[in-house]
Specification:
Distance between the termini of chain A: 21 Å
Pfam families (chains A, B): MerR_1
Oligomer: homodimer
Number of helices of chain A: 6
CATH topology of the largest domain in chain A: Multidrug-efflux Transporter Regulator, Chain: A, Domain 2
Shape of chain A: elongated
Strand content of chain A: under 5%
Protein name (chains A, B): MerR family transcriptional regulator
Organism (chains A, B): Pararhodobacter marinus
Number of domains of chain A: 2
Keywords (chains A, B): DNA-binding, Repressor, Transcription, Transcription regulation
Radius of gyration of chain A: 23 Å
InterPro entries (chains A, B): DNA-bd_dom_put_sf, MerR-type_HTH_dom, MerR_fam
Order of helices and strands of chain A: HHHHHH
Number of strands of chain A: 0
Amino acid sequence: MREISIGEAARRSGIKVTTIRFYEERGLLPAPPRSDSGRRIYDTATVERLGFIRHARDLGFRLEDIADLLALQGQPGASCAPADSLARRHLSAVRERIAALRALETELERMVSGCDHTDTAHCRVIETLADHARCIADHPTGLTGELDTAGAGKAD
Amino acid sequence: MREISIGEAARRSGIKVTTIRFYEERGLLPAPPRSDSGRRIYDTATVERLGFIRHARDLGFRLEDIADLLALQGQPGASCAPADSLARRHLSAVRERIAALRALETELERMVSGCDHTDTAHCRVIETLADHARCIADHPTGLTGELDTAGAGKAD
DNA sequence: CCTACTTTCTACAGCGACTGTAGAAGCAAG
DNA sequence: CTTGCTTCTACAGTCGCTGTAGAAAGTAGG
């Protein structure tokens, strides 16, 4: 089985068939050779490349950054500084995200624990939402989804 | 200044003009009366509604859920159980997200701390990405961006 | 060989929550 | 009157896919 179909590549890499074609379109994978009837033919190297991509996606890297990392991987001997700084930047983005989510967690906890469950007129959840002043110092307003993925991998 | 323009409403609420129009289209705001020349005319109640929306968005609620919360707010006397359970569900989603991001943080830390910064052939970052087996037990594969917002509020 | 089923192909629309663009019109001040 | 700001509508783009439609090709059983 030296010639690998797209479906087989999907099974081996854990990336869906449609997603593989999407990655090709986005330049993460080279256009593969085709069979006489026009079907994509992959090899083990491509499957490994897909594994790389999947892992990087699981870690929340953006496709654009993954393309850069793949290019670096293909240049043995080149400095790994770009890969390193990319990973570091990503790490600090993840940390910021965690901090923001923790602040959210705190305020949501206060909201749901403070509600006496009678009716909407006295609902702490709704009151709190209506009156930002009650917690304006507690949760962040200023960082928008710059890191929205993490732990991807629905995979087939 | 009883009649509030969309720009003024944006300034007061911290929500961009374009986003206000977008919220109207999505049914979070009623279609406001218009001036002779067709411009939207708001009142303080709408500005407060915008504040509610903004706060809920800052907390990461989805627009669909915010619409539900707004409907509940408008029905004093109704049970707040739906609002409560919505907030609780959201809270547990936030917690899951934090846990996933912490796992990511751990692996990213290992990646960047283990790199000796020589060249790509020995780069720990790239090696780790290429070989998922090194950490397959450490980070989650299975939960995809079901909670991707948090701490929004770029706001004008 | 025929039929049924699966896989693959292309091309395009949709998700969520906006943001940005284009082009036109209204409005206020100098 | 001109300049410059605001507002209007309508639509495309962001990100990382997912889902759809319709067609062609491959595979298995009778």
